[in-house]
Structures are given as structure tokens and as C-alpha cells.
Amino acid sequence: MPHFNENEEDQKSLPRDKNGWDGKLRLEPKQDGEDQDTKSPPDTDEEEVGDVSREEHAADPSNGNVPAKRAKIEVVTEHPGDILPADEDLLADVDSTETDLDVTHARLKSVAALDLQRFTQLRRLCFRQNELKRIHFPESWESARTLKELDLYDNEIEHFDFLDQFSELTSLDLSFNRIKHIRRLEHMRKLKEVFFVQNKIVEIKGLEQLTELTSLELGANRIREIENLDTLVNLRELWLGKNKITEIKVRLLVV
Amino acid sequence: MAGQEQDHGDQGTSTCRIDISMSTNLSEQNLSSLTNLTLLSIQSNRLTSASLAHLSALPNLTDLYISHNAIDSLEPLSSSHSLHIIDVSSNPITSLRGLETHKEIEEVWASNCQLGSFEEVEEVLADKSDLTTVYFEGNPLQLRQPVLYRNKVKLALPNIKQIDASKSSW
Questions:
Q1: Which of A40, A252, B6, B106 gives a 20 to 30 Å CA spacing to A88?
Q2: CATH number, domain with residue B42
């Protein structure tokens, strides 16, 4: 067999160590279909809302058998002796009145086991450096009305349609993810700073209504034109380094 | 208004410039809606010098970072609001002309360009009373006479506090 585990769809062309391991932790595929959530979806634009409904249902705490399933998904199986604690324990000792949660570099693939529902007054939430593709926040979450800062730097996010309930955010960091299009931010009218460093964004679009923005970071993307910024009258800093911009265009206000 | 939007063809840039020069109102309705923009970073892109003229529509721009582009002249900046910081490193500029009018300039970052004349450095920058820092490393200025280089910069700009990455050593 020339390739390691070649039936895994997200295995191709990743760097590997001498044992053929690509540094990623996944569930063994043989456990009758329960591992589906850990596989990457195909990298296409068509995959828009994807499997949200299924996973949101799974995240519902009323569904009794889900936490056990989630916990199992987090367990490392490829390297014996390298077993991590299940992520449901990560916040177990944190008081539910906490306003600032930080789960950085914890190999999180899902937040379902963190029981976020019980945190009702969060102001800052940070999931930096994890392996999140989508985040299934509790529905009608009280903290969605108090959260000001959300930091999802360095994850595997392509679409952020799971942010619809957060309308009070002032700071959003989605740097080092896999975003191609800026969509579904219109409701975050209070945003002051947005970070999209090192994604795959091809055009500046979808920010027109965020008129409170003072800082916009779009460095290291695939942007070719400076456009659709006319309405951002409060913008003080505009970062566009490492893109494909050939000219500073003067665009007319399109109203 | 939308009818006057510039085309996207090869002539896009020049059409744009003509629009601005012919109609102040037009330019004021464009980029100048970003009246609060103080910092603009377009490093490591593919800008040419023609684009720089449009920056005059930004009335409060003070920090401009345009290193690693294809800019060969700063002259289009002469109509801009006075910058405080410019980073134009790693561009094929042979001259600092265009910065004469930038009376409030504090830092000029111009490493790895094609600057060759100490006389010109003096002419363009010597009267800038707020200027504290210059980077000229990797220019013919420095490569031609690496031993004399720092002293020559200091002679041209007597009030300078920092030349390249080191603050003292004179």
C-alpha cells in the first residue's frame, strides 16, 4: 500500500513524518460511522450551510447520549500514550459567572462538550489555535447578547454562518482560517475591529454596513482591488499587505 | 454618479486620474469619505507609482506602508497630506522627490531601494524638523561606501536620531 490511510479524504498532499503521520489527530474510521463529523468537508463554495442542522441538533443538551459521543471524538487514537483529556473537562472548573473564557491550543474540534450554555454573561471568548470548522453555539444563548470580543484565530473555519446571534461584538478575529468570502457579518453593526489575516479572501465585500469599524485587517489574502469601503467613514487603519493589489482605485460611492 | 465610474480595462488608472483632476467634487465623493483614515498598509502587493496620486483624497493619512511593491517614483505623493511615517522599502525608487512637501515627516523607511545621492537626501529631507529616523541600508548610497555611509547621512541630516536599525555608534 503506497499511501497511508488513503481512503481518508483529507489526507492527500499533507506533510508527514517518517511514520506517515501528518500531525493531525483523528478518529479511526472503523467505528461505524460515528466519526463523520471529524472529516473535512470538500473545499468548495457550494458547501454553504452544510450539515449545520444535524450538528446543531447534536449539540442540544437535551439529547442525552451526545456528550459521550463527543468526548470519544476528542480522544487521540493514532498514537498510543498520547491520549488527551476529553474537552468536556476543559471548562468544568470555571464558574458560570465568568466573563472571559479562553481555550487556546486545546485541539478542540467541537465545542459541544464545553457546555457553553451555562455561561450567561461572557464578554470575551477565545478559541485560538484549535481545529474548529464550525462552532455550534447554544441556540438563543444569553451570552450572545453580552459578548464583545470573539477570537477564533488559527482554526479551520470556511464559513461563519454560526455567528448570526452575535450582534453586540466589537472585535472579531478570524485570522488564519480558510475563509474565501466575507458573508453574514451585516448584523454586527457595533464591530470596531475585524481581523481576517491569512485567509483566502478574494474581494473586499460584505463589510459595507459595518460603519463603526475603525480597524480592518485583511493582510495575506488574495485581494486584487481596494473597493466597497466608501461607507466605512470611521475607518482609521486599513491593512492590506501581502495581497495582489495593483492600484489604489478610487471607487464611486454606490448607494 | 455611477455612470461616471471608471472602466476596468487597461486604461482604468489613467481614466481615474483624469476624473480627479477634472472634478474636485468627484474625488471628494470617493476615497475622501474615509476622512478618518490615518494608517494605510499595502505592503507586498503590486502597486505602481501612478496609484499614489489617489492618496491625496485621504485628508488625514499619516502612516503609509507600501514596501515591497513596484513603485519607481514618489513624486505623485507631493500633493498628499503630510505623512508622518512612510515605509517605501524594497521598491525600485531612485529618488526621494515627492517628499519635499511632507513637512511633518518623522520616519522614512527606504531600505533596499535604488537611492544614490546624498545631495538629494539633504535637499529633500534636511529641513524636516520632526525627522528622527531614516533607513537607507541596501541602497547604492550605503553599498558604494559602507564605511563612510553613516557619517554622510549624519552630515546630510544633522538632527537625525536613528540611522537604520542602530541608534548610536557615532
A1: A40
A2: 3.80.10.10
